[in-house]
Design a protein that fits this description.
4 strands; two-stranded antiparallel ribbon; 27% strand; two-stranded antiparallel sheet
């Protein structure tokens, strides 16, 4: 199974937490009592995370067209790559990627879809054409 991974990450980027370490308090109005001052408080916190790696497949996103190559999407298949606590994740994760680092060129998408996933040139062209039609209907 092919998975989405990024191997080139800039180490110059500042490390920012992607998960909140503190609990959140949410005020909920109690059922049956509509008075404005009568609220219940609920706390939500996270202590463990599960990281999944998903397969890639031919997509249908309309922002890709013939000139930009075929759209690529996450598939349904995945495997769990890690279970860890939030603190451990924050200490070991790689820095965030920029938007430019997350963009796959049309050539990279074509290579992934044809070589790894076995799609034909005809299927890629049809997906690109379909995406363009959807975009023009917007």
């Amino acid at each position: 199974m092919d998975v989405v991974k990024h191997s080139q990450v800039s180490s110059e980027m500042p490390k920012r937490s992607s998960l909140k370490k503190s609990s959140s308090t949410i005020a909920l109005r109690e059922k049956g009592n509509g008075s404005p001052g009568n609220f219940m408080k609920r706390n939500v916190s996270f202590n463990k995370i599960e990281i999944r790696e998903y397969s890639m497949t031919l997509g249908d996103h309309p922002d890709c067209s013939l000139k930009n190559g075929p759209p690529i999407s996450l598939g349904w298949e995945y495997h769990n790559s890690a279970h860890m606590g939030v603190e451990e994740y924050e200490e070991t994760r790689q820095p965030r990627r920029t938007k430019q680092e997350m963009v796959l060129s049309c050539y990279v998408r074509q290579t992934i879809l044809m070589n790894r996933d076995g799609f034909s040139q005809k299927e890629l062209k049809k997906a690109s054409t379909d995406a363009k039609k959807i975009r023009l209907q917007r």
